[in-house]
Amino acid sequence: MKTQSLLLALAAAPATLAHTVWTDFYVNGVAQGDGVAMRMRNDPEHASDPLSDLSSNDLACNVNGDKGVSRVQSVGDGSTLTFEFRSWPNDPTKERIDRGHYGPCAVYLKKVDSAIDDPGHGDGWFKIWDDGYDASTKQWCTDKMIDNNGLMSVVLPKGIKGGYYLARPEILALHNANQGDPQFYAGCAQIFVEGTGNLVPESTVSIPGYVKAGEDSVSWNIYTADNSKYPVPGPAVAKLSSSSNAAGANVKAQSTQTQGLKPAGCICQNANWCGTEVSSYSDEKGCWAAGEECWKQNDACYKSSPPTGNAGCKLWEAKCKQIQDACSSGNFNGPPNKGKDLTPKAETIDVGLVMPTAGVTGGSEPKTSAAAAEKTDKPAATSAAQVKTSAAVYTSTAAAPASSAASEAEPAQNTQSDNYGGYVPKLTKTIQQNAATTPASEIAPHPTKVACPAGYECVTVYTTVVKTEVVYVTMAAPERKRESLQARRYKRVE
Question: What does pTM read for this prediction?
Fold first, then answer.
């Protein structure tokens, strides 16, 4: 019987599993832009690698996450935040995370004096939502996130103290936790909550420190244990209070955002980089100088590009090429399309399922209905009384139908309260992505090795995989253009 049980486990946890990385976020369904106001690992090759050292400061905001970025995104009190996960940082068309990465999810906040300067790690974190295993739908939180197109949405508790925060989405993959390899995926968004509330958490925790190696939550055997009894890692969802004795009472509120604002004159964005208009010109010398000014900004854009890609840099590169062509053709009045904002219009999407922040003041269960999902251009409406998605709402039922996405999951063993309002159908709607998004990833995620549990007889299954390598040479073109530009300019001067 052990061999049969192990074969089921191997079917649930293949030898090679795609990892994931948090790449962008939405405010009330409106895209903020890939990498904008986000702390994430800088190295594209390892951006989706999991965090396994539970004592490392990296557990807070990921590797390189102790350094803030230049942008801070403003959000309204009680807004819906949606975090998007991808297995390939700059390609949302690929899978979001392998289905074998079963595990819980959570979202934490930390009130800070400066969203840019605070290192992230340490005390001050409080949880606003979590979810583990739901026996009634036979799903882990990761299953629900995958079925929701890689999107994880929560409502900010209404009435929290206004000002700067770090927002931290978290996924824990348990497929190899029983072998001492729990895999966390996390990052931090730098946000400014616009509000005049005075609610703060009654208690906070330190990251790292909120979980420790060996605890049930990070060493759970999902293949043999009663998953309905799985203890979600970290503290309970925070209770908020206006009491002067609460843990966050001494953290100051800010009523006006003064840091991390979008720079004045920004006409093109790529993550946290902004391009500004080049100098006007009316002669040949000024034309070539403006071109060189444009290419210099283009270099800075490419060099600062995070793992989410350089789509904005390519738009700016086209502008530089336009100036160069104008100079070459003798058109010395410019720049062309002066002051035109090249940043694509922010996309509004249907965020699908909104996870309730039950137990937190201002949180509530999502509205449910039998109506079919529809696309809308209006952001989600939120209040202390109800939470609506930007379009889709789902009917709560006791169990999933046989043909549902839930039937793909492993069998449940017992029941557990459902933080999502019941069965969550698999979404079939394709979310339209920004036209400027890079079409393919530059670096593939690294595989996860799955060990054989002690006391079992392992069977190795070999699968032939065709690997395609794509090599991008993004800097060569701008450099060659600059060289020809310089030569042309010096020839004109002589």
Answer: 0.72
Give how many domains the chain has, as a whole number: 2
Which of 362, 378, 408 finishes a domain? 408
Q: What separation in angstroms does the CA of 479 have from each of 315, 438, 473, 486?
A: 16, 21, 11, 11
Residues 162, 184: Cα–Cα separation, whole Å: 29
State the burial class of residue 32 (Cβ atoms within 10 Å of its Cβ: 0-12, 13-18, 19+). buried
**What element of type H or E holds 81?**
strand 80-86
The answer to whether the beta carbons of residues 77 and 162 sit under 8 Å apart is: yes
CB 36 within 8 A of CB 271: yes
> Would you state the pLDDT for residue 20?
83
> DSSP assignment of 285-302, as one string?
HHHHHHHHHHHHHHHHHH
My answer on whether omega of the bond before 233 falls inside 30° of 0, hence cis, is: no
The whole-angstrom separation of Cα 84 and Cα 96 is 9
Residue 286 domain boundaries: 266-346
Give the C-alpha distances (Å, rounded to integers) separating 441 from 65, 92, 310.
22, 9, 11
320: buried, middle or exposed (CB in 10 Å: 19+, 13-18, 0-12)? buried
Nearest Cα neighbor of 367 from 162, 80, 11 is 80
Categorise residue 175: left if φ over 0, alpha if ψ from -120 to 50, beta otherwise: alpha
**72 and 133, same domain (yes or no):** yes
Q: Does residue 476 sit within a domain?
A: no
Rounded Cα distance, 27 and 96, in Å: 20
User: Please, which residues have CB within 8 angstroms of residue 349's CB and are 6 or more apart in sequence?
Assistant: 26, 29, 31, 390, 431, 432
Q: Cα–chain-centroid distance for residue 421? A: 23
Burial of 76 (0-12, 13-18, 19+ CB in 10 A): middle
Mean pLDDT in order along the chain per 10 residues (494 residues): 38 50 89 93 84 95 96 96 83 74 94 97 96 94 90 94 96 93 95 94 96 96 96 96 82 92 96 97 97 98 93 97 96 95 92 67 34 34 34 31 36 36 32 36 44 52 43 40 39 37
Contact 293, 279 (CB under 8 A): yes
Do 299 and 184 share a domain, yes or no?
no
3-state secondary structure of 313: helix
- Is the CB of residue 192 less than 8 Å from the CB of residue 155? no
Task: Indicate the residue among 358, 377, 408 that finishes a domain.
Answer: 408
Count CA within 13 A, CB hemisphere, residue 332: 11
